[in-house]
């Protein structure tokens, strides 16, 4: 049996909680982690006679996401009720959208590899809906407990076409969606708090086949790495079934990430009949076309586009470009530094992702909270590139210019960090070092040329770090040959 | 029109006693016969009325209700939560 | 004439003239309740203490010379599906037998802001589903004109209480005729307002797109006063529509000369009792003598209204009533071993048969494979019916029709025969389907001594026109007498 003979087809339904101030249909606070049942009112707990009122921010945010994914925006649309019984759904229906979603027919270009090859994944639709509450289980009490705090937290559901092949593409898609949500600042994207969740549809087919086979839906996938595991597991399960002459049934399975397996939740025969119908409590949503356009113009350059631009225009490798794009502050800083046109983009990226990021992490700060400006960093890099200071000295300089108002030149002068490139001064120093390390000299002569590094280091020490190591290395080699 | 009353009852989360099923069945069927008098209609979309657009709510937080007040009608409570039969094994 | 027999308008005048205090008015009505309630059975909950303290507050204000709202000090009965904070709101259902809301319905809050006095909550068909009050899980309410007859429904308690002078005014709700039909059966005035004119916030939903709260009164002016008090845009109800009704009650006695009334032939045909037809036509003639033009019109889709109504209302009800599951409030079955069993037993024990029938009908018409054939077709029919009314109103100011095909029926007569019971709604449902206002007023007495009612239907937000015509007829016939309660 050969798994590689099969193609794995994946479609994803991503649910993202929106970071509005209030809930979708009432004015309760939209926040995570409050004490149980304290962010609740008669509306979000489904008390008899209460009615929903739609939060305008939810519509704006969904339209923004629609623009970001190149969707058609249905500025005239409606909401529908999805009816099912469950204790975390107090009204016994979820207000969602059925046949006319707010956004439709979009796409996301995912990046397939480090060369920057892309693939266009179709986005079927984006609709708005409300989240359900949470059930708490435990051994210390009989039954399950219901916490309604999450009821009415606004969600957008982003449904993809079955265009993804295998878990790798699925992961790239999920990361793409997540970074867009973050760029638009419409979702906190905190996986551990469940602010992004997904349902995964998987089917398999022999490579070369154009038919779609029966698909299986998996629920309870709560992380991107979990999605990869769930897809791989389910694909193998289906291939095993087919290879042993079995049949795949249209069913819903529940992913158990801890156990690394999925189990049957319900078969097609038990398929839920949600009895969708237009929500009579909410009139037609009509968004002014001018508002739709205004929202389109508010969309920043999207992360995938930016990443490819960094690779193509700035010559950064995929890994660096990706790290920069992940953090909008750093990306903006990089672009400002690059725009100054004084030093190499790669050097800027290296410093930003290296020492600067390390110091931010150690001190738990953001870039904006430091004194570092693109101008100051570029000035420092220019000093290195011109050979005026060493790379090692740069590490000292960067820390000071990040946390004080001093410029790089001021730090270099104050601390005497300028490199000595004056050969006569260096030659005297080198001769002294060679004289004092007769054993090393002997070893070098005996063929152990790697002691050269040690000798350079000794010279650097003697120069208190100000010697130009490149010049010293060349000089030491010449002097040793002469001996 | 034959209605699968047992299926509809299940969907509605109603347990209809066996002896009452036939009565419900025939009453439901007579109602369905009545509603089937509706003539065929030209197909058109339903549910959209852009002439009367909805007024949306500003995204402003208002105080929630006290937990004791919001859950004062709950049949069973524990640790500030409503209790239901176990939903997972 | 006792205080409890007087109209709200008259009582308001007496209060301001210091001819009666709010306390006296309230005591008079409470006394009347004590006297006749055993035979009428309108109330599910009495709130005498609340009533007395509210009345006392009005008297205090009056003593201090503070301005009073038009309905201050007027005793009010409230249908038990309208949420009243800290007062039981059961919808006459076992499933909500112990439910106490933590908030007020908008319309009720508006009435209380006026300084009205809450007497208590009144009976209804369970969840407003029914036309006789016999579907109440709580008690039987009798027609004050004859205890062997139903008061109508679903706002039977509201109509019976007002007709028996157990309340000066009442709030009801009308989804398919639930204010107008009991008003007709009990010989009082009942107004079903334009959909969206009164907030539904706090009205326990039956069919969200059709439900509307409205007043029940003994005079047209009183109905207008209460309607004016409760109407208005509510930010908590997205379907509520702003419309300025200021001066509505003050203007109802304006002359009607030159107005045009349409008589839709479909409302006078087969199925309508002869005495009802004759009484409504006689009322039309009386108005004609006042200079009103009367013409025959046609609303051809009328016969389809009942089917469309039962599909739409049941579909919405099946969803609206799904929240009664024993989890958050109300009844929970005592014994169960799983979640599904808890749901099914709670709901089966908590709901009455009529509610179950409608939930199942609604579930069926929305279920997979049937949506287009039933729900969608009914919604399309709804558009057609609304369009026919709109067209009719281009040529007339109001439409006059019987409120019900006949007078009240006997208790038990139609019980357990859903189709016959549903036929009682045939004249009223189309008005809800089209979202229009209509007021039912008495227009005579049947052979059985029970009142006959007629309704004046208006174009959207034209309550002023239909109330003017109703008031004109009211003064022509010398006013509507309350029920003479006989032992």
Structure description:
The complex is a heterotrimer of chains A (about 475), B (about 90) and C (about 475). Chain A has about 475 residues and is of the alpha+beta class. Chain A is built from 15 helices and 17 strands. Chain A folds into 3 domains: about 290 residues, no CATH class; about 120 residues, no CATH class; about 60 residues, Arc Repressor Mutant, subunit A, CATH 1.10.10. In chain A, the strands form 4 sheets. In chain A, strands 1, 2, 6, 7, 10, 11, 12, 13, 14 and 15 form a 10-stranded mixed sheet that branches. The longest helix of chain A has 20 residues. Chain B is mostly helical. Helix content of chain B is about 30%, strand content about 5%. Chain B starts with a helix and ends in a 5-residue tail after the last strand. By secondary structure, chain C is of the alpha/beta class. Helix content of chain C is about 40%, strand content about 10%. In chain C, strands 1-3-2-4-6-5-10-11-9-7-8 form an 11-stranded mixed sheet, sandwiched between helices. In chain C, a hairpin with a 5-residue loop joins β10 and β11. Chain C starts with 7 loop residues before the first helix and ends in an 11-residue tail after the last helix. The chains are: A alpha+beta (about 475), B mainly alpha (about 90), C alpha/beta (about 475). Chains in contact: A-B, A-C, B-C. At the A-B interface, α1, β3, β9 and β17 of A face β2 of B.
Strand arrangement in the largest pleated sheet of chain B: 1-2
Number of helices of chain B: 3
Helix content of chain A: 40-55%
* Helical residue percent band of chain B: 25-40%
Q: How many DSSP-defined strands of chain B?
A: 2
